[in-house]
Amino acid sequence: MPFTLWLSLAAVCAMGAMSPGPSLALVLRHTLGGGRLPGVAAALAHAMGVGLYALLTVWGLGALIARHPVLFQAITWAGAAYLAWLGVKALRAGQASALQASGVATTQVQAARDGVLVALGNPKLILFFVALLSQFVSPDMSAAAKALIVATAMIIDGGWYVLVAVALSHSSVLPWLQARAHWLNRVTGVILLGLAARVLIG
């Protein structure tokens, strides 16, 4: 793959990772709930989910969904249902006056599970990889070039969210966020429910 083409790919992946959405809300929630390690676990697991979608894309996911729109609709609806479930959980957590690290049952295993599920169930990621990443794949592309695409998507996504988790868990940042966590949970819940509704409406 030419270096200029790879730079375009990296820029697209970076924009996708940095855009606000349920993935950022997930890392925020687990970092607030359990500290740095659960936040990092969520970030790395999310990157694995991103890598799976990237792998499926280079294997021809775009062509498959183009031939079977019902499959794409089913994936999208399943993602919307999971986003709605996360939104309800966030709203219920927001009823507390503040979110303390010891007051939320979140572990590295739970964070990793949610990281993978949010990545796989996020309609934005499905659209991102099918519509954008597939543009960098050609029928005659070598296996090494395909592996480079998958690795680039994973490393940029994982690196960004690990950076977010580390920054949020800094001693001067985390207490400030914890004191306002009930508002953050409410906003996150509304955003997640809104995204789910938007997907279902079409």
Care to describe what's here?
By secondary structure, the chain is mostly helical. It has one domain. It has 10 helices and no strands. The protein has helices spanning 3-18, 22-34, 36-58, 61-67, 69-93, 108-121, 123-131, 143-168, 174-179, 181-201. The chain is globular, with a radius of gyration of 17 Å. The termini are far apart.
* Overall average residue pLDDT: 77
Number of strands: 0
Distance between the termini: 36 Å
Enumerate the spans where pLDDT stays under 50 for 5 or more consecutive residues: 95-103
The computed structural class is mainly alpha
Write the layout of secondary structure elements.
Blueprint: H1 3-18, H2 22-34, H3 36-58, H4 61-67, H5 69-93, H6 108-121, H7 123-131, H8 143-168, H9 174-179, H10 181-201
Helix pairs in contact: 1-8, 2-3, 2-6, 2-8, 2-10, 3-6, 3-7, 3-8, 5-6, 5-10
